[in-house]
Design goal:
Layout (H helix, E strand, L loop, with lengths): L6 E7 L3 H12 L6 E7 L6 H7 L5 E5 L8 H10 L4 E4 L5 E2 L3 H9 L7 E10 L2 E6 L16 E4 L2 H5 L10 H11 L4 E11 L2 H4 L10 H10 L1 H18 L14 H14 L6 H13 L8
Parallel strand pairs: 1-2, 1-4, 2-3, 6-9
Antiparallel strand pairs: 4-8, 5-9, 6-7, 6-8
Helix pairs in contact: 1-2, 1-8, 8-9
């Protein structure tokens, strides 16, 4: 018998206990049981510790960093230091997994294909509904939605490429992927919808204190996850037929059309994870998500 769990799930969080509770429930609905969970607070000052303890599940562990670092990289690295699993999965504290997420990705990494990194399909959910899917961008020099919630990798990969970059406040996931690809890591795609992603800026997630949008989908996952999966794919297909759609975008100031057209390419060429773009994007993200509206303790 295995003395340690095969998978360690790492959930970085900061003062979002309402959504975290729902995310944890989606982990406990997995059809794969050989996992442990490390919820790592980034200097949390709310009731997150009590929420984690309320599950009374020995597989779920809690630790809190003494100070807020301002990004999920430091909590993820702390989770990696505690991890005992051979495989690492990440989940955002406001995202949900379908029950087959862990079994699908562990299958990828245990299929004998020598893959060290696996990823699945996720759906983006905005107040207007399902706005599109994401996996991994084909080219990191171009814009494309990225979320570690649909990743899994061998823990040994960290020994090759290093930990998460804690100096990168915004775009840390893109910077991590760049090192994955640069190292020539064998990557496997599981063509299955396993993740529900709620872009924090679209929902102003940190401004919410109740009526969390994840509740409806979590109830649907409990009742009939396969029907929810099919309905979401049909909704996305319908949007694609009607024309491309994307999560709401926000501009702090109106920009000329030619600037809006050229700016994404220029930012990607320069590097969104480099100063001063990284600092500006992080500040902008805090405003759009509602985090800047709170008085951090």
């Amino acid at each position: 018998m295995r003395s340690f769990p095969l998978v360690t799930v790492i959930i970085p969080t900061y003062n979002s206990s309402g959504t975290l509770r729902l995310s944890l429930e989606s982990v406990l609905l997995q059809d794969f049981a050989e996992f442990e969970v490390w919820v790592v607070g980034d200097g949390c000052s709310d009731d997150t510790a009590s929420v984690v303890e309320s599950f009374a599940d020995k597989r779920i562990h809690w630790t809190n960093l003494p100070d807020n670092s301002g990004s999920p990289s430091a909590p993820r690295n702390e989770g990696l230091r505690h991890a005992t699993g051979e495989l690492i999965a990440y989940l955002g504290h406001d995202d949900l997994w379908f029950p087959w997420h862990l079994s699908e990705l562990t299958g990828c990494l245990q299929s004998g294909n020598r893959a060290e990194f696996a990823y699945s399909l996720g759906v983006l959910l905005a107040p207007t509904g399902a706005t599109g899917c994401f996996a991994l961008p084909e080219d990191l020099s171009k814009s494309g939605y990225i979320s570690p919630s649909n990743w899994m990798h061998r823990k040994s990969l960290i020994d090759k490429i290093g930990p998460w970059a804690q100096k990168v406040k915004f775009g840390d996931d893109r910077e991590f992927l760049r090192r994955v690809f640069t190292a020539g890591t064998p990557v496997q795609f599981r063509r299955q919808l396993t993740v529900l992603k709620y872009p924090a800026a679209a929902w102003r997630m940190y401004s919410l204190a109740s009526n969390y949008p994840q509740s409806n989908q979590l109830n649907a996952i409990r009742r009939d996850p396969e029907t929810l999966r099919l309905n979401l794919l049909l909704e996305i297909a319908g949007r694609m037929v009607g024309g491309p759609s994307s999560p709401p975008t926000h501009h702090l100031i109106p920009l000329p059309r030619w600037v809006r057209k050229l700016l994404p390419g220029l930012l990607d060429w320069y590097g969104r994870d480099r100063w001063p773009i990284d600092t500006f994007e992080h500040w902008r993200w805090r405003r759009l998500t509602g985090l800047a509206d709170k008085r951090d303790k």
